[in-house]
Design goal:
The chain has strands at 4-5, 16-27, 33-37, 40-49, 52-60, 68-75. It is mainly β. It has one domain (4-75). Strands 1, 2, 3, 4, 5 and 6 form a 6-stranded antiparallel beta sheet that branches. Strand 4 and strand 5 (52-60) form a beta hairpin. It is extended, with a radius of gyration of 16 Å.
Length: 84
């Protein structure tokens, strides 16, 4: 499986693995601003609006992880293991 552009992710509410590009901002003890990359993967899904399912947004299940974040890539979840 390869990472795919988020624009091609499903909008039917199914779960997928997403890559969240995220940054946390801070300041050193000396007052110098800095950015810390907190990007990671997470389970994600489309949250459509009741009145118009195409209007909505992709949401990651862990919630907000950075001061600025965006789901930028996705891939389908693997098939579950067999019971064999």
């Amino acid at each position: 499986m390869e990472w795919q552009p988020i624009e091609t992710a499903p909008k039917d509410g199914s779960m997928f693995l997403g890559w969240i590009s995220a940054v946390r901002y801070g300041e050193t003890d000396e007052g110098q601003p800095f950015e810390h990359d907190v990007s990671h993967h997470d389970f994600c899904q489309w949250r459509g609006m009741d009145y118009h399912p195409e209007d909505g947004y992709y949401e990651n299940m862990m919630g907000r992880i950075g001061d600025a974040q965006d789901i930028i890539k996705w891939m389908p979840l693997p098939d579950p293991p067999s019971n064999a």
